[in-house]
Design brief:
The complex is a heterodimer of chains A (about 350) and B (about 475).
Chain A: H1 4-20, H2 29-34, H3 41-50, H4 56-60, H5 73-88, H6 97-100, H7 103-125, H8 130-135, H9 138-141, H10 144-173, H11 179-188, E1 200-202, E2 205-206, H12 209-236, H13 249-274, H14 285-307, H15 314-331, H16 338-353
Antiparallel strand pairs in A: 1-2
Chain B: E1 5-13, H1 17-28, E2 33-36, E3 53-55, H2 71-81, H3 88-98, H4 101-106, E4 126-128, H5 133-147, E5 150-152, E6 155-163, E7 166-174, E8 194-203, H6 212-219, E9 227-228, H7 237-244, E10 249-250, E11 256-262, E12 283-286, H8 300-312, E13 319-323, E14 339-341, H9 344-350, H10 355-368, E15 403-415, E16 418-419, E17 426-428, E18 434-440, H11 443-446, H12 458-479
Parallel strand pairs in B: 1-2, 1-8, 2-5, 8-18, 9-15
Antiparallel strand pairs in B: 3-4, 6-7, 7-8, 10-16, 11-15, 12-13, 13-15, 14-15, 17-18
Helix pairs in contact in B: 1-5, 1-12, 2-3, 3-12, 9-10
The chains are: A mainly alpha (about 350), B alpha/beta (about 475).
């Protein structure tokens, strides 16, 4: 549950909003609010996850600070949102990560994993050598079984953690879900104003960039995921081991996805620095940065690996890339990534109740 | 301000809707324009920041208005609430020009809501600003900045040099940024006034509704119990200066747009959320525990504007809306929680009302309720018989605990006393001759059209139409 103080703040904000309703055509948060008369912690979690932080309602608000009512819907809902992430997280002890996760811990985790894997690789075969590079033979550096075991295990854990989180969220939101239209809303970022004027970065400053960079990030991520899946099918079902040619499906998907995962996170990072700080919860800055940095580290090292896979550096690069991917995976359930899952559930509930 | 004196073609005094409409129009006509806003940037926009829509005539459905609202009907609505006392040619001008407002506004980045079937039932007659009046003002100020209009915030007009019907200069004193009006504790000495010279002046500085002393002159000590719904910066300073300089005054200083709002609201700037929509669903009693007006006379959006003055006439200017659990959730939620009690006697004690009197009032009311089928969305047949005053619709027995009570006070939106103007927005003298270069728009002249009543969104229509007329006239005068 959001803390007592935050629940009180959220209820105050929503009570003022519900008596005003001027913002009702900006986004689903306000119509959803209008269906309620009181705002308990579960209602606030739902509304908070429905909010896309487009920012319009802050500038439109006659009660925004310095008014004595001090209404800042985007910031209050952002604060509630991160507490809802903690609440849904599995296993519970790791929920504290949402409060301590920052750029440094994210990158340290990646660095630690890289060092450990480097050590293991050197100890096992000492093969971070020219031969592996010339043949672009990844499995000479990290044997296939080790890679599958390591990533399979991590993936299993991550999927379990995310699934439990989603189930907890869904149970709390209750009511019927309408998933298909909600997926459409989520995939188009409809409520980041994909269908109308763009969302704000500052008062009366509307640009499409945040939405486009998010698309580049999300679809880049999905293409990289597709690339890995296709490669796994090639390897396991068809018996075609990596590496694959530049024109092959896994490489094409991975390249396009990788470029998206460079452009997107860099753009989102830049957007954050230009955005009015009043629109966000400053304490979550680090959480977002860690996620963006790990995405970027993954894509940059992945692309470098593609270009340099025949070079002597390949072995080192592969380990750096795998370390970055592993760190990204491990932090998925305890970082910014979860927003997509819970927001989609919130959108499905919204579609279900309207 | 660095210099002691600045020259402009047009100076606009005020920073709300009418002021910005005048400034933008004058700027488009080629004038060098300054806007002198007494509020700090955060609270700019006068009462417009609390508004939500403007009323406009239209012959066919548009993207923002349903059905049709013809000029004749609009004018008839306006004349009806004002008892035909309005300056009809000016009222007609507002109605005629209202149709063109939304397109003109869109040109400056203003956005409207898609028409909706809202709780106010107003989407046929009124175009709603997306996000409300503050968003509207943000659009106008951004446009002003783009077009090179100078905007002075925290800038209080301290003198108008008017001689021979011409305003020659404006004395302006600036407060330190961030310092709120009325917070005397932090008030430091304002800067020495600077003089702004302009070839034409548009006064769009609002009414005097936030000037408690002036309200007391009009209403006596009752004014002390009024709550000001809007900006604390509308103190009528410039209105008074114009009257002192010989402008013809129009309207009764007691007349105003005032509604009944929650008595627990902040003294200033509480805006829309302080409203209470529970009145038609129950009874309203005064401090003596007695009813005083037909709560069910008509739909609340058509009646809320008379309840401010009704409450103002009650002892101590307070009243109480009392409903029972049956109608909870049937009215817009209030920002303040109701006082809840298990019995009428307990409720009376909690609201500090005479117990016996309130119990008797409720008992008499309950006994007088006639059978009917309750429908809060229509003028239903639930009424009382044999009471003074009767309740003519939505009369249901108040018999289901918990009983809910909300305290009510008069909430003043804006005053109607203003300066008389002609159809070119020129300020007139009592003989009918206009000032040479002084124009007025918005609340400061709304009394030409509004004498008694109010219809939703008309203030913004008057401000937009007369703001544009004043801006055009001022620019023509200045750059001819």
């Amino acid at each position: 549950m959001p803390s007592v103080d935050l629940t009180r703040e959220g209820a105050h904000v929503m009570t003022v909003c519900n008596a005003c309703r001027y913002c009702e055509q900006y986004c689903p948060v306000f119509p959803a609010m209008e269906q309620r008369l009181t705002f308990a912690a579960a209602d606030l979690n739902y509304l908070a996850n429905l909010c896309h932080n487009c920012g319009e309602c802050l500038y439109a608000c006659q009660y925004a600070p310095p008014h004595e009512f001090g209404i800042n819907v985007p910031r209050t809902l952002a604060k509630i949102r991160v507490e809802s992430y903690e609440e849904y997280a599995w296993p519970r002890p790791l929920s504290a990560a949402f409060r301590h996760h920052n750029l440094l811990t994210g990158l340290s985790l990646a660095a630690g994993l890289i060092v450990v894997m480097l050590g293991a690789a050197l100890a096992a075969n000492g093969a971070l050598v020219r031969d592996a590079g010339e043949a672009a033979d990844f499995y000479a550096v990290v044997p296939h079984d080790v890679m599958v075991g390591l990533f399979g295990g991590v993936s299993l854990f991550v999927i379990t953690a995310l699934a439990i989180g989603m189930r907890r969220c869904r149970q709390q939101f209750a009511g019927s879900l309408s998933v298909v239209p909600a997926l459409g809303d989520a995939l188009t970022l409809r409520h980041l104003h994909a269908t109308g004027p763009d969302c704000v970065t500052a008062e009366e400053t509307r640009t499409p960039w945040r939405r486009w960079f998010h698309h580049a990030t999300f679809y880049g991520f999905m293409l990289c995921f597709a690339s890995t899946t296709v490669a796994a099918i090639y390897h396991v079902l068809l018996g075609w081991p990596a590496p694959y040619g530049y024109g092959s499906l896994p490489v094409v998907l991975g390249t396009i996805g990788g470029v998206g995962l460079v452009v997107g996170p860099v753009g989102l990072w830049a957007q954050r620095t230009h955005r009015d700080p009043m629109l966000s919860d400053p304490s979550q800055e680090q959480l977002d940065r860690s996620f963006l940095a790990l995405l970027l580290l993954t894509s940059v090292t992945g692309l470098a690996l593609l270009v340099l896979r025949h070079q002597s550096l390949m072995g080192l690069l592969l380990i750096v890339h795998l370390g970055a991917v592993l760190a990204l995976f491990l932090t998925l359930p305890y970082g910014k990534f979860v927003h997509g899952l819970y927001r989609t559930i919130a959108l499905a509930k919204y579609r279900g109740e309207t | 301000m660095a210099a002691d004196s600045r020259d402009y073609d047009v100076a606009v005094i005020g920073g709300g809707n009418a002021a910005l409409c005048a400034a933008l129009t004058a700027r488009e006509a080629g004038a060098r324009v300054v806007v002198i806003e007494s509020a700090p940037r955060e609270f700019r926009g006068g009462n417009s920041r609390h508004t939500r829509n403007l009323r406009c005539a239209h012959g066919a459905p548009t993207s923002v208005l349903t059905d049709a609202y013809l000029e004749d009907e609009f004018l008839a609505d306006l004349l009806r609430v004002n008892g035909n006392e309005t300056d009809e040619p000016l009222a007609r001008l507002v109605v005629e020009r209202s149709a063109g407002c939304p397109d003109w506004m869109r040109g400056y980045g203003v956005r409207f809501q898609a028409s909706l079937r809202g709780t106010l039932h107003l989407s046929r007659t009124n175009a709603f600003f997306l996000g409300g009046g503050k968003a509207l003002m943000n659009s106008y100020y951004a446009a002003a900045e783009r077009l090179g209009i100078d905007v002075l915030y925290d800038a209080e007009v301290v003198s108008l040099d008017i001689r021979d019907g011409l305003c020659r200069s404006i004395g302006v004193s600036t407060r330190r940024p961030g310092q709120a009006a009325g917070s005397s504790a932090t008030e430091s000495a304002p800067s020495a006034p600077v003089s702004i010279r302009a070839k034409a002046v548009v006064v769009a500085s609002g009414g005097f509704e936030a000037n408690l002393e002036w309200l007391e002159e009009a209403w006596g000590t009752a004014a002390r119990n009024f709550i000001v719904r809007g900006t604390p910066y509308n103190r009528g300073t410039v209105l008074r200066m114009l009257l002192d300089a010989g402008a013809d005054s129009i309207g009764d200083p007691r007349e105003c747009h005032a509604v009944a709002i929650d008595a627990r609201s902040p003294k200033f700037d509480g805006g829309i959320v302080t409203r209470l929509d529970s009145v038609p669903l129950g009874i309203a009693v005064n401090q003596l525990g007695e009813r005083f007006y037909d709560e069910g006379e008509d739909f609340w959006p058509k009646r809320y504007a008379i309840w401010g003055k009704l409450v103002a006439r009650q002892p101590e200017q307070i009243a109480f809306s009392i409903v029972d659990d049956k109608v909870r959730g049937r009215f817009m939620p209030s920002v303040f929680p109701p006082v809840e009690a298990g019995s009428i006697a307990e409720l009376a004690r909690m609201l500090e009302l005479p117990v016996g009197a309130l119990e008797a009032t409720v008992a008499r009311f309950n006994a007088a309720v006639q059978p009917g089928s309750f429908d809060h969305t229509a003028l239903d047949d639930c009424r009382t018989d044999g009471l003074t005053p009767e309740k003519t619709h939505w009369a249901q027995r108040i018999d289901t605990p918990p009983f809910l009570g909300y305290p009510l006070r008069p909430g003043i939106t804006f005053t109607y006393l203003g300066v008389r103007v002609d159809d070119r927005a020129r300020v007139l003298t009592p003989g009918g001759a206009p000032f040479g270069n002084v124009f007025a728009a918005g609340e400061v002249m709304a009394g030409n059209i509004l004498r008694k009543g109010y219809i939703a969104g008309i203030g913004m229509t008057i401000g937009t139409v007369f703001g544009r007329i004043a801006g055009e006239g001022a620019a023509r005068h200045a750059v001819r």
